[in-house]
Write a structure and sequence with these properties.
Two copies of one chain form a homodimer.
Chain A: H1 11-18, H2 22-30, H3 37-50, H4 56-63, E1 68-73, H5 79-94, E2 98-103, H6 108-120, E3 125-128, H7 135-142, E4 148-151, E5 159-163, H8 165-178, E6 184-188, H9 195-210, E7 216-219, H10 229-241, E8 246-249, H11 252-265, E9 274-279, E10 292-295, H12 298-313, E11 323-326, E12 329-331
Parallel strand pairs in A: 1-2, 1-3, 3-4, 4-5, 5-11, 6-7, 6-8, 8-9, 9-10
Antiparallel strand pairs in A: 10-12
Helix pairs in contact in A: 1-2, 1-3, 5-12, 6-7, 8-9, 10-11
Chain A binds a DNA duplex through helix 2 and helix 4.
Chain lengths: ~350, ~350
DNA sequence: CTGTCATTTTGGATCGTTCCAGCCGCGCCT
DNA sequence: AGGCGCGGCTGGAACGATCCAAAATGACAG
């Protein structure tokens, strides 16, 4: 069997075979009223027999709108984004959209060309799962052409759906303070340097302030896309030398890498070091990871984000940018304890 | 600022503004030779100024081919698939394709409607990351319309790119046998019940046979899409009651869940139970998981899969289905040891 | 000044749909 | 018998690009 390209059947093929006009076939596939049951079944039979599938490109071209949702994600290898991508795909499909993902891997280049590509596909809307690196260029590519929703990251243009990062950070930091920690560091992950990160820092700072403690901020240093294990060990070792007893990481992925370094360096968690994450990815709940963390309601975030985008696309929602904030919850697990005397 | 839909500029807008015909603009954006440098720069300036982006739908409609690759994936929440999805997205983008993902979550319905949708989008090719549940219907939807490549799972129609599952299973099982295990079970994950699984079972059986040992096969029982923790604990407890001392799981995700159950049940790994996985996802390498496993060359799998699909799409590769098998490697970590006497 | 040829530019057909205005035929009312 | 209304169906004009054959332009030789 040679793989013959086998031209797809068109609406005209169906029309000819059924002995009706293309308009009638169009009416049948779109399920409009005003087609006699007789004709309807006849056309449907031909459609099934020919395996006819309407060409979405032609349809969208004439309708001047698509059902494609662009999704920009920083790192699909990060479980949080993978899980969010899954939820978004499901929500989008549920509302009749198809999601087109652009994994940027923190590279500016990939992000911009991905966005341009999405615009070329006339994506009905764009969902940012991680903050655009070059926000100005990103804005100029998308703005005015498609509505944008920023999920889990803040964008100055477009709607925003995020967890209450500030409150979550407060919960996390307060938890550490209450356990008796005084040297509590904040860890930021540069790849996902969203302004979720910003709000989390704010919450962290406020609590530290209130408790009269000195804040310490650390940034992972890594090449985009790659994790350099040894370098990280050095970084962490250096940080521990500052006698920090607890760390609040801006996300679970970072927290888990931190645990990893700690294990390798022989630092006991939670005895020598307490660690709190943010996200509550599936992995964090594993007995072996057992990470105390702040849970983001992933499914709800995805649901509301797609809902808002859908409303914008259909012109139902109009006017000022929405800003939805969802409640978070501290999940106590085994990576935190009172500091050793 | 009201969110005005702001019609996209068309090629005619550019042509009018630049004082040339649409054909000339078309020639400029396609970079064909035979446009005077003078005109070219003038047109380019207008393009930049108007922020014009060609409409891919119109282009693909007239060209009768798209640059969309459909990717069917069983469970994006499974880190192996998430990682593969990432690699595939990157490879596709590198060759000028856009990947469209369909997460089926093991649901037949989602899979078939996803495939139909991909065909409506006239996807140039389809990449299966997990075996279609209803292979006959899947085949009838895709076959003859777009080339298919099965990655990491076997399909009877289309090309196949996979790791050497059989050899990998042999390596894993032999490793356990050599450690002195006699009661070695095989664990199959129903969601990703690909025929990768089949080949892995084959390898397992062969080694067990050769060693004169009785094989035992277990299947996780779970609803598609959800993991029912307690039920799993029961299942695992029951299995351990059969005095199995080692388990070879058809994939890392299953192996990690197994570790999880063992931890909860107070079963010590590797002292009371040895566990080997398959895939070598990033997580498996974490010190706290430390899973002995068979490494699949993910990036190479993705690269070759997209390469073959590209060749099929362009008609460069013709004729019989390819079947590429990549070498695997046993990664020794801490989840395996000789059985306690 | 004209003919030839190479280089640029152009108009129109085309892709497969949707959608709208209009047409056809039939039954009913007057 | 003629007019009207209506359900069912149809043809043609979009949509925004590509691509080809043909036209325009310009250079240059005779």
């Amino acid at each position: 069997m040679t793989a013959s390209p086998a031209r797809h059947a068109t609406i005209l093929d169906v029309a000819a075979a059924a002995g009706v006009s293309k308009s009638t076939v169009s009416n049948v596939i779109r399920g409009v009223v005003g087609v006699s049951p007789d004709t309807r079944t006849r056309v449907q039979e031909v459609i099934d027999q020919l395996g006819y599938r309407p060409n979405v490109l032609a349809r969208q071209l004439v309708q001047q709108r698509t059902t494609t949702l662009g999704v920009v994600v920083g790192d699909m290898g990060n479980p949080f984004y993978a899980e969010m991508a899954k939820h978004i795909e499901r929500e989008a499909a549920g509302r009749g959209y198809r999601a087109m993902f652009c994994n940027t891997q923190g590279e500016n280049e990939a992000e911009l060309s991905g966005l341009e590509s999405l615009m070329e596909y006339r994506a009905a809307g764009v969902l940012f799962l991680s903050q655009p690196a070059d926000r100005e260029r990103a804005r100029s590519i998308v703005s005015g052409r498609a509505p944008a929703v920023f999920v889990t990251c803040a964008g100055d243009w477009g709607d925003t759906v995020s967890a209450d990062d500030d409150a979550g950070a407060e919960l996390a930091t307060e938890h550490l303070v209450r356990l008796g920690h005084r040297r509590i560091a904040y860890f930021a992950d540069p790849i996902v340097e969203d302004s979720a990160d910003h709000d989390r820092q704010t919450g962290y700072h406020r609590v530290m302030d209130r408790a009269g403690l000195a804040p310490t901020i650390f940034h992972w240093q890594r090449q985009p896309g790659e994790l350099l294990r040894q370098k990280r060990d050095e970084q962490v070792a250096e940080i521990l030398r500052t006698r920090v007893t607890a760390v609040f990481s801006s996300n679970d992925y970072g927290a888990i890498e931190l645990l990893e370094c700690a294990d390798r360096l022989g630092v006991k968690v939670p005895d020598d070091l307490s660690v709190v994450g943010f996200d509550d990815v599936v992995m964090a709940g594993l007995a072996r990871i057992n990470l105390t963390t702040v849970r983001q309601p992933q499914a709800e975030l995805a649901g509301i984000a797609v809902e808002i985008l859908d409303a914008r696309v259909n012109g139902v929602l109009d006017g000022a940018h929405q800003r939805r904030t969802l409640d978070v919850e501290l999940v106590l697990r085994g990576s935190t304890a009172s500091p050793q005397p």
